[in-house]
Amino acid sequence: MLIHQRTLGKEISLQGTGLHTGQDCMITFKPAPVDYGYRFVRTDIENCPEIPAVIDNVVDVCRGTTIEFEGNKINTTEHVLAALYGLQIDNCRIEIDGPEPPVMDGSSIHFAEALFSAGLVEQEEPKNYLVIDETIEYHDSEKNVDIVALPLDSFRTTVMVDYKNPALGSQHSGLFDLETEFLKDFAPCRTFCFLSEVEALANIGIIRGGDLDNAIVIVDKKLSDSELKTLANKIGVDSSQLTLGENGILNNRELHFKNEPARHKLLDLIGDIALLGMPLKAQVLAARPGHASNVEFVKQLKKYADRNKLARKFQHEKKSGVIFDINAIQKILPHRYPFLLIDKIVEFKLDEKIVSVKNVTMNEQFFQGHFPGNPIMPGVLIVEAMAQTGGIMMLNGNDNINDMQVYFMGIDKARFRKPVIPGDTLVIEAIMKSRRRSVCQFEAKAYVRGDLVCEASLMATVVEKNN
Q: Where is Zn(2+) annotated to bind (predicted)?
């Protein structure tokens, strides 16, 4: 894979109509400096606001991926972003004089060919790859969607679709080399929908720019001549232009590839992965993906990236099975002897879950008085260890960690099940239940040899330190 970042050699423009909004617009791709990423710029709005193409800015996934920043939106970003990501371009300013990029033919090929013709320029800074070194999974049982990222020192992705519809059937496709396969095998693959969906989509007004040239319509139901005429009126075409087709595609349109729908789903997945904000080294396997599931999967990748970024910041020596050792913990928490009550962090999912370990020895100073001849760890200190564990989970979501501190606001439902004595290893699991601005609630449980010894519900807030 490429080592250095890429941008364009010169600017280039295309013009067309947005698929969902139906508005004509001009889109211009421009070179950008290193670490700029992808940013849409609405030139039709006063002061030309920028809308960074990042996962945190996704606001809608209905038939496309819409992003918004400070009240300014861009609809249907995936085909543009797929073209940029597929050509391994890292930095690009995308100026657009409307709310949605032009649909062109419903694929990424026009964008990709334009970008390629503008020239791809290598920049001085290295690419900031997200390297996956553990399995990351997304599962939606209701929609029967599975997406998984596996460790791999390159980028590959495989997509399987199965709509349980005889008009389409089951299909799969795989991309193994962006450099050689993207432009010719995936960029030309067009968006598609079922005939049964077209009328509903037209009724809610989200395919105002759709026509017979920018989408594949798969015939999954029979229509009478009168129903076909009604449909033609709804989508604004002459009814004489519509035929159900003998190949299962409206108007007998030919597919670019036998599995073009599966390839387009892979293209959409790449466009949504681009919202991660960094190139990915992983093997991505997706079963029945869509924009909603893609976005949730990329959010998981983003949390993994944030966790790794923070781990690199505080944990300078990589240790097997350890996220943060005691040296890293002391960079994060202000606590010191005799009140630093956790030794290491062994599991950490940003804003979700954290697991710490406290090795309890007879050298603990509190055993001198609690109790002579019958040493038992005070319950209040077990709760404090829980609080410190949760505090790391909260502080690690903050870029200005050295200026922040956690204050606990409440402890509820504390229960002490078994005594903790010298020689025990205390394993503490804290799970985030809610986070609103700076206030968090989490449930914590402490175990010794798999047995629950203590549990509590805690509330805390993150505040700036008093200087």
A: 79, 264, 268
Q: How far apart are CA 446 and CA 437, in angstroms?
A: 27
Single-letter amino acid, residue 167 = A
Nearest to 115 by CA among 196, 32, 174, 53: 32
CB distance 87 to 120 below 8 Å: yes
Residue with tokens 């699991």: 429
User: Is the whole model's pTM more than 0.90, yes or no?
Assistant: no
Cα–Cα distance measured from residue 12 to residue 456, given in angstroms and rounded to the nearest whole number: 59
Pairing, β 404-416 against β 344-349: unpaired
Q: Which of 5, 19, 31, 154 is nearest to 79 (CA)?
A: 19
Q: Catalytic residue among 172, 256, 335, 370, which?
A: 370
Pick from 315, 317, 323: nearest CA to 353: 323
CA gap 181, 176 in Å, rounded: 7
Question: Would you call 139 a catalytic residue per the annotation?
Answer: no
The CA dihedral of 83, 215, 180, 138, to the nearest 10 degrees, is: 70
User: Hey, which CATH number is domain 4-125, 3.30.70.1450, 3.30.230.20, 3.40.50.300, 3.40.630.30?
Assistant: 3.30.230.20
- Residue 370 designated active-site: yes
Domain residue limits, the chain: 4-125, 136-308, 315-464
Tens of pLDDT along 330-356? 988 989 999 999 999 999 988 889 999
Q: Which residues are annotated as a binding site for Zn(2+)?
A: 79, 264, 268
Kindly state the tokens that stand for 326.
């005691």
Dist. CA 84–CA 63, nearest whole Å: 20
Of the residues 4, 291, 316, 335, which is catalytic?
A: 291
Q: Is 315-464 CATH 3.90.1150.10?
A: no
Q: Which CATH class is domain 136-308?
A: alpha beta
The answer to whether the CB of 159 falls within 8 A of the CB of 148 is no
Instruction: Give the tokens for residue 274.
Output: 């681009």
pLDDT in tens, 270-324: 999 999 999 999 999 999 999 999 999 999 999 999 888 887 778 877 788 889 9
